[in-house]
Design brief:
By secondary structure, the protein is of the alpha+beta class. It folds into 4 domains: 79 residues, Phosphorylase Kinase, domain 1 (2-Layer Sandwich), CATH 3.30.200; 186 residues, Transferase(Phosphotransferase), domain 1, CATH 1.10.510.10; 42 residues, no CATH class; 132 residues, Jelly Rolls (Sandwich), CATH 2.60.120. Helices cover 28% and strands 24% of the residues. The strands form 6 sheets. Strands 12, 14, 16, 17, 18 and 20 form a 6-stranded antiparallel beta sheet that branches. A hairpin with a 5-residue loop joins strand 7 and strand 8. The radius of gyration is 27 Å and the shape is globular. About 17% of the residues have low confidence.
Length: 475
């Protein structure tokens, strides 16, 4: 296309357009290209809507919004070129894993709210907020896409008489009635998305678009707190307010919704930097972190220059005393036993494995409940006879440097080690602990474990058994 883009693979198809993974030969990069279906090329309504999407999103440079790179026309076919986001959309994650941990759901909702608030400040209402329109990149960041029916704030929700745009499962009551939409219309839809992230299901179902839309207009949504008992009451009230039938009863803006989401996160995890998702300080350069660790391992004490002129015997005795303090945990080290929050996000099962190993159970290994667990498959002839290993992937949500990771299990006897990687999807090639036989509670001592992503890499399971991990903690 355009003498520049080579279409490689069809990765999505909707009622209006198809999306292709493509190679940008001019800049040697992978991109995504949305192409308007051929049957709409002579329909000015659809062509103009497609062009409007390109113009609208081109204004939006935000870390949680997919970037528009180019647009054009090829043999009468309209196309838009976007940045390529490698990863699933939020709907696919829900279908694979089921309801998300409360904290993860709030973080995704906050990222979406920030993106939508940014668009609202520039006069654009999305009007089709749903998990399918949220892509997740390798870092687990949400990126809003598909502003195909976005309209300016002062434009009615109906594009032509009798036609209402949007997706019925997430549609606001005023949008379903064909009335004017504004920022709080997207607030309602985002409330529905958060409801689904927490419960695994949308609040209203029906046989067709009209049946579902009417339920949004007339019926109160089932209580999130009844379907998700571990959900804090404040989060339940947030969703109830966001999904109020009357627009004036909702949050007045996305900024106001963001503030309440941040408050919910802070109450849920008050000691975490991520609880409020405020800007984090820049990470220390790896070389300096390694230098700092080396100083701690040597005793963590910088001797005054004057001590060097003291007789050699006294200096040697002082050094030995410092080493003894370090070895006995007597305070010579700067290390502290601070908990590091880890979240189970999936399994790592590279070839010859099938790329999944009870992924939906992964959050149960970090939920604080010893009665729930993530487990491997049962290996009748032992794990090592089939593949190199399989692992539980853990996300610290930021760069962290744990000195220990503790694994609890109800199936002791399997062999594991801790590894790190640069991506949630692997590879995990950096071994940061020795291999150990896991007992009911086993602590792995880590070395050079500077990473965001960790994996409990299981290399052997006794024949006819499986490995089960009930809890993983780090400090």
């Amino acid at each position: 296309m355009a003498g520049r883009y080579e279409l490689l693979e069809l990765i999505g198809r909707g009622g209006m357009s198809s999306v292709w993974k493509a190679d940008d030969r001019l800049l040697d990069r992978t991109v995504a290209i949305k192409v308007l279906h051929e049957q709409f090329t002579t329909d000015e309504e659809y062509v103009e809507r497609f062009r409007r999407e390109a113009r609208s999103v081109a204004q939006l440079s935000h870390p949680n919004i997919v970037t528009v790179i180019d647009r054009g026309e090829e043999e009468g076919r309209q196309y838009i070129v976007f940045e390529y986001v490698e990863g699933d959309n939020l709907k696919q994650v829900l279908e694979r894993r089921g309801p998300l941990p409360v904290r993860d759901a709030l973080i995704f909702a906050l990222q979406m709210a920030r993106a939508l608030g940014f668009a609202h400040e520039r006069g654009l209402i999305h009007r089709d907020v749903k998990p399918q329109n949220v892509l997740l990149n390798d870092d687990g960041q949400a990126k809003m896409t598909d502003f195909g029916i976005a309209r300016a704030v002062d434009v009615d929700g109906m594009t032509i008489t009798g036609t209402v745009l949007g997706t019925s499962e997430y549609i606001a009551p005023e949008q379903a009635r064909g009335q004017q939409v504004d920022a709080v219309t997207d607030v309602y839809s985002l409330g529905v998305v958060l409801y689904e992230l927490l419960t695994g299901s949308v609040p209203f179902h029906g046989e067709n678009f009209v049946a579902v839309a009417l339920r949004h207009v007339n019926e109160p949504a089932p209580s999130v707190l009844e379907l998700r008992p571990d959900c804090p009451a404040r989060v339940g009230l947030l969703i109830e307010r966001a999904m109020a039938k009357r627009p004036e009863q909702r949050f007045r803006s996305m900024d106001e919704l963001c503030q309440e989401l941040q408050a919910c996160l802070a109450e849920l995890d008050p000691v975490s930097e991520e609880a409020t998702l405020i800007a984090r300080p820049a990470a220390s350069p790896p070389a300096r972190r390694r230098e700092s660790r080396q100083r701690r391992r040597r005793g963590g004490i910088l001797w005054p220059v004057a001590a060097l002129v003291v007789i050699l015997a006294v200096a040697a005795l002082a050094a030995l005393g410092a080493m003894a303090l370090r070895d006995d945990g007597g305070g010579g080290s700067a290390a502290t036993n601070t908990p590091i929050k880890l979240t189970g996000i999936g399994a790592y099962d590279p070839p010859p494995g099938d790329n999944e190993e009870h992924d939906a159970e992964a959050p149960q290994a970090t939920d604080g409940d010893a009665s729930t667990a993530w487990s491997t498959e049962e290996y009748r002839s032992g794990l090592s006879s089939l593949k190199d290993g399989v692992g539980l992937v853990l996300d610290a949500r930021r760069d962290a440097e744990p000195s220990t990771i503790t694994v609890s299990s109800t199936t002791p006897g399997f062999t594991a080690e801790i590894r790190t990687g640069n991506s949630a999807s692997g590879p995990f090639d950096d071994e940061v602990s020795d291999a150990m036989t896991v007992r009911e509670r086993t602590t792995f001592e880590l070395t050079d474990a500077d990473s965001r992503y960790f994996v409990v890499w299981i290399t052997e399971v006794p024949p006819g058994t499986r490995a089960s991990i009930t809890e993983v903690t780090a400090s």
